[in-house]
Structures are given as C-alpha cells and as structure tokens.
Amino acid sequence: xxxxxxxxxxxxxxxxxxxxxxxxxxxxxxxxxxxxxxxxxxxxxxxxxxxxxxxxxxxxxxxxxxxxxxxxxxxxxxxxxxxxxxxxxxxxxxxxxxxxxxxxxxxxxxxxxxxxxxxxxxxxxxxxxxxxxxxxxxxxxxxxxxxxxxxxxxxxxxxxxxxxxxxxxxxxxxxxxxxxxxxxxxxxxxxxxxxxxxxxxxxxxxxxxxxxxxxxxxxxxxxxxxxxxxxxxxxxxxxxxxxxxxxxxxxxxxxxxxxxxxxxxxxxxxxxxxxxxxxxxxxxxxxxxxxxxxxxxxxxxxxxxxxxxxxxxxxxxxxxxxxxxxxxxxxxxxxxxxxxxxxxxxxxxxxxxxxxxxxxxxxxxxxxxxxxxxxxxxxxxxxxxxxxxxxxxxxxxxxxxxxxxxxxxxxxxxxxxxxxxxxx
Amino acid sequence: xxxxxxxxxxxxxxxxxxxxxxxxxxxxxxxxxxxxxxxxxxxxxxxxxxxxxxxxxxxxxxxxxxxxxxxxxxxxxxxxxxxxxxxxxxxxxxxxxxxxxxxxxxxxxxxxxxxxxxxxxxxxxxxxxxxxxxxxxxxxxxxxxxxxxxxxxxxxxxxxxxxxxxxxxxxxxxxxxxxxxxxxxxxxxxxxxxxxxxxxxxxxxxxxxxxxxxxxxxxxxxxxxxxxxxxxxxxxxxxxxxxxxxxxxxxxxxxxxxxxxxxxxxxxxxxxxxxxxxxxxxx
Lengths: 424, 283
Prior knowledge:
The complex is a heterodimer of chains A (424) and B (283). Chain A is an alpha/beta fold.
C-alpha cells in the first residue's frame, strides 16, 4: 500500500518538475521568477544583534520573499550551525563561529563575483587592513577565516580567492561598559574590571571565546603577563589567565555572569553591576531608559568582533538565487544604516551613508559632535546635540583594535577550563 | 490460565514498547556516548575513559557534587517543614471537605504561571535596589543594602523552596487524608499529648507521603540547572549546570559522562530512600 502511493507520488512530482522546467525554458524567465519569489521563505538564524524583525519586514517589502528570523545566544548558534544543517538557510554568525563550524561542511562558499558591492567592503574583511598602514590585531581576524579556495573548499586561504565563507555584514569594537554615576571617577584601563573597589559589582560574559579575550586584555593590563598571541594561547597561558579570574571570583569580585544581551542590560540598568564586558547596543538600551552608561574607550584598545551571513550547503536553485539577492540587498545600505544608528558598523559604510542623515553619519561614523538629537532606529533618544560618540570616529575606534574574538588551537582545553571557572 | 498470561503480556506490551523507545534507549545512548570522543564540532565513536577521567580527577567536580547535595538537602529540609505544616493544617484543622479542597486549590494557583516566571520575579525583588532592600532600609533595619539576598546560595535555595514546596504538600496531604481519625481519638483517649500524637501516630503513618515528596523534591533539585543559573547569576554551579555548559560548548560526550554519574547518584539515593518505606502500599 505504502509503496504504491509512494511510487505514484514520485511519478507525479517528476511530471510536475519536468513541466516546470519546460515552462521555464519556454517562457521569459523574469515572469516565472516574479511569481515564484513570493513563495520563497528563507530561514535565518543568528545572534540577537542583527536578527531584527524590521529587517524581515523590509525584505518582504523590497524583495518580496519571506525571511524567518530566529535569535539565539552565541553558543546555541554555534551548536545549531554545527549540528542541524537542515534547520536553516542563512546563518548569521560571527567569524570565530565560522572557524568552528566551517569544517563540518554545513555552509557553502559564496562567489564574490555575484556580490555587487564586493569592492566596497572595508579592508578588514578582505586583506585584514583597515588602512594600508594598519597592523593586524591578534585573534581570529575575519580575513583569516573569510576565504576558501573554491566552491567546495574546506581549508581557509590567506588571499582574496573569490570564494567567501561569510559575507561580512556587521562588526564593532567592544570595550567595557561602565556606570559613570556610580563609579564617579575616570576609568582608563582594562584592569579596572578586577579592581577590588568594584568588588561584587563587576561582571563578565559567560561565552568562552569572547570572555577569554576580555580576560586576556585584563591580565595584560594588570601587567601580570604579556601574551605572544592572545588569540592562540598555550595551555599554561590558559591556566594562568583563568586562574587569575577564578581567584577574583572566589574573592567575590563578580556579581553575576551574563550570557545574553538583555541580561547585561538588566544588570547594568538595575545597578547590580557598575563595570562589565558589554556590547554596544546594550549600552544603547541602558541609555534609552534614561540611565547614564558609557562605552568606555580604554588605553589598551578594543576587543573586536565581526559577523557575516553564511549560506547553508543545502541551499540551491531558486532559493540560492534569492539568498544572493538578499545579500546584495543587505550590503546596499538600508540595513547598514539601521545597524549604524545602533552603534555598529556596516561592512560597506559608503552605501549606508545614503540611509543616514548628515547629523547621524557625523555622530556615529565620523566622531563629530551631534548637531541635533540622535535617536535609535526605534525612536529612543540616545544623545543630545553637542555630545560626541564614546571613542570617536570609525578610524579611531576600529584602528585601536587589540584583538579579535578567537577560537584557539587549544580551544577544547580552554572550554573545559572555562567550564571549571564557571563552576568554581 | 495460559491464556491469561498471554493477555497479560499483551496488555503490558504497549507501555513496555513506549518506555523502551523513549526512556531506556535514550539512556543507553547517553551511556554509550559518554565513552565517545569529541572534536570541536563533532563527536566520533570510540571507547575512551577520557571524559570520566577528566571529570573524576578534577576537584571542581567534587565541589559541584557537594553543592548539588547541599542544595538538595537544604531545600528538602525547608520544603518538608513547610509542606508538612501546610498539609497537617489542611488535613486536621480544616473540618469541612469543601474548605479543604478550596484551600488546597489555592495552594496550586501559583502553578498556573510558568516556573521560569515565578523564579525570575524574585530577581527585581531581591536586588541591590530591589523591593526587599529598599523596604528594610526605609524601616531602618539596615543601613546598607544586603548583597547576599540576590545571586547567592540564599536566593537559589529560596527559589527552590518556593518552586517545589507543593510537591511536598500534595503527597503528604494525600496520605494524611487516609489516616483513620479514630486512631487519633484513641491516642487522645489513651492520654497522649498533642505532640505525642503527632510524633508517634501521625508522622509514622505519613511516612510514605513524605518519602514520595522527598523523591520528587530531591530529583527535581538535583536535576535542575536553570534555577541555579538565574538565581546565582551563574556564580554557583550544580551538576545540571556542568551538563548544560558542556552541551552549549558542543562537548556531548563529556556532558553524557556527567549525566551518567548524576543518574547513578540519584538512583542510588532513591534506592536507599525506598528501603525505608514500602511505596507500593501507598499507590
């Protein structure tokens, strides 16, 4: 019984696809395309930072197809990209996650010749250099995991091969967030995170690949140790770094650890924590509640991260074309403008400029004084006229990156030690 | 007779099937995977003792184990005390059945919202600038906000007691309702004081209920991870947290090994508890 119906079904579906192919060959392509796109649904998942409903709505409006968004924390994103390849079409992930999941073969390389604005993508994602003179920071810099040899490539290559693993979309320079009203003095260095003055009022994020880099910045700032390469520690260096923090934890330095963006906002807004690792939009969220919060630039520089869009290896045909269309649309400016007005940077800043007012561009990108009130995309006031962005212009901030979020050779060992740190 | 046994087997078959597919097989799978190896993004079949070795040679594991027992024991103590008192009041002090049922239902009302919400609502209450601290300060009891109210063992246990007391109330109340009231009259007639009746008559007769409640509470607390994570602000850990961290970091074999050890411990514990009381008599 089952066999019969199965056969019948497959015969019918062959007829159907055959018919569609004939139609596609005979009729002018755009017409078929135009009708079919409406039925296309692309499933995107990623961290909360760029999985925004406004983007999905705008995609429906501009491109006609449906984008389903799922927001998860970084670890869950990694887990899903590595273990459930059929559950998504588009992975919106960070470069260090890419380093972890690329070897699984769940993502496919993208042909840069199909990306209209490829030449305008900032240098960080292509040859690693912001300007020709800049030095490349330690850690998993995006360009080191950004390219593979060809469509089926498993190993990363160090040149612009024309096949990208992720199309960069969003990035920023992270630092510590502070409550200036509760601290009452200037903060200039990373080591303040472990200053006993803030005992029971500090926090660090519980995402190992990011947290270990924050730790390394603190350890170097304390003068305890200088790493040959923070982004690739030896076992001894991992023990040392986590040891210092375990001791601080036992002495009650930390109020809590956070894992998701909104937890960090609540900790800061409620005054439970006055200094912590933080992400830019979290600062924005605290500020929009009318609570003073500063994304404090520090002398040792920033810990930076970058995210991009990767395509599931099972994506093909019309869906794949739609995904490329989506990527081109992503880089064409609207999303970039939206993200930049939250304090992130767009991979193609010059296209985003068209979607921002002169005042906004000046404030967010050029580090100029705001000439008028600065509002977030959702309408909350973030800065008054005359205020300047913490850390200044794009070049000042991205030019002072000391390290990138990283996955190390000894990552498994680090992860186990991290687990012990959390449990200690 | 023979026919009967065939029917018996057939009747038992569906449940056996369901349990073996959805309970026994996954547990066997977990035990098998606990010997596998892992890379950063995948797991591969092997027969390694690495996971157990790492687990059993790290002093963090033992501290976490101790913590897990500590939470279970303290939570058990409080839930038993509160649960017994509530059940006793409902069973022996409320005379009308209607009121007993009404008050019992009242106890279950908090359970109409989700576990997580009941737990998280403690956070703004206990925070540094929360309701508890600001009330105490305005009453002049304390000058500085109490730091240990939130993100501490105190808040974890408070949440556990809040979440799980009902699991103690229900079985104890159920057993108490079955106690023949004439036994209590007999005790009084024989000259026993209230405390003597409680200790020598009611408590022994309530033992099965206490034991069932204990099993519920202990199993729930020992397997929990989310309460510990939120109420301690990730500052404390129990076995569940270790497993959760491992899973988040894609270390499934290591998570399985921890799960196996936790399972064995809980089974031993419940096995011991069951020796004290014949639970079948109760069911």
